[in-house]
Amino acid sequence: MALLRIRKDGDDVLRGKARPVTNVNASIRQLVEDMVETMRASRGIGLAAPQVGVPRRLIVIETDDALHEVVNPEVVRAEGREVAIEGCLSVAGVVGEVDRAAKVRVTGLDRDGRTIWLEGDGILARVLQHEIDHLDGVLFTDKALAVYETEPAHYPEAKRLKVLFMGTPQFAVMSLLSILRDGHTVSAVVTQPDRPRGRGMEVAASPVKQFAVKHRLPVLQPGDCASSEFVRRVAELEPDVIVVVAFGRILPRSLLDIPRLGCINVHASLLPRYRGAAPINWAVMNGESVTGVTTMYMTERLDAGDIILQKEVPISPQDNAGTLHDKLMVEGAALAEETLRLISLGKAPRTAQDEGSATYAPLLTLKDEMIDWNRTVERVCNQIRGMSPCPGAHTVRSGKKLKVLQASAVQDEPRHGSPGEVLAADEAGGFVVKACDGAVRLEEVQPEGGRRMPAVDYLRGARVLPCEVLGANT
Ligand code: NI
User: Fold this and answer.
1) Is 131 a catalytic residue?
2) Residue 90 Cα, ligand 1 centroid: separation in angstroms?
3) Cα dist. 366→240, 371, 394 in Å?
4) Distance from the CA of 86 to the center of ligand 1, in angstroms?
5) Does pTM top 0.90 for this prediction?
6) What is the pLDDT of residues 169-188, one digit of tens each?
């Protein structure tokens, strides 16, 4: 066994197209062994042969205690999209947000030359795609939506703070990253307990936990944030400030009182508008053209604390909840960073919210997801955008749910038909459904128990007939 030298960005071997392995022999097996050893020694979770100077198609991956070695790997199926943060042993000092397929199926050979199949989602899907990119001379920085330095930024006048971070989904990961990048000390990360996620409902760690584990930050997952045991634990950490981003719970006074500089929350709206759990969905569903992010001092009342900073973010007609989420995630992280900087300098502004203008964005219910074809075309389209990709607005066809993930208004407004009636259902005319003042063209759908697909693909298999009526009461 031998440790191999990892080539860094700028080395030509990282930029060529690697050749397939034609014979899985002893020297290939030795290379696999050495790559695994090198990956482990560098605390990486994946390594491609070009990264150790060998331009051959061979990758090793180790996630969640499972080791995968794939010779001549090839992606044969890819589903869904997901933006997440990744880094690379060959690119020092930076991480980036990369948009990749959420789930992939890969085929290749094992170390004995036998054909293997590998299916993965989450981190495994991401690392598989990242390593296979290396075989084609592609680095993650080539396709990153944004790249961040992991070395502390230099704000000479700002003081480093001791931060306790609380958050759960991907939205919060970006803020945590910006806090670390700014050189603050994160003494612990608090996140919701692991729970079943995704279609398979397998128990999985939250994105914040996955990030924290990768960065070797202590993780706390209390069942109850108000328990005296948890409150004592936090008090012992003596944080200067607690930063809360999409944590999913209201904090008790006993916790809010601990940090000397207060509890800061990043919220995905321009408060006092859209207080509550689903501000991104509701802003799009209500047809807003602008929303934003707010940082505030938390109180015991939901999203009612004094405002520190705000930034507006426009909503384009092409945005859906997913794309807006990604924009607000980036802006929220930048605002968290700036807020901590001002707090450390004792210069953070503080403005009470105007209670009279408060509006609410409650958790989405099944009723909110149901498309009401008696509404206007504009409202139906906004509802579909505001629910896409998750949880997805739906209608009912033959007693089964049909999610509609993308739709558009039909310009030459049809006069006939009643709400919910199918006006066209063929390749030429598309999948067109009557709403109260016009019609909506369904562009992407997902039948119950099926995959998401272009509406024309659905029409081909589903035998939709004009004059059929969609909706709950049929
Ligand atoms: Ni890499």
Assistant:
1) yes
2) 6
3) 41, 10, 9
4) 9
5) no
6) 999 999 999 898 888 999 99
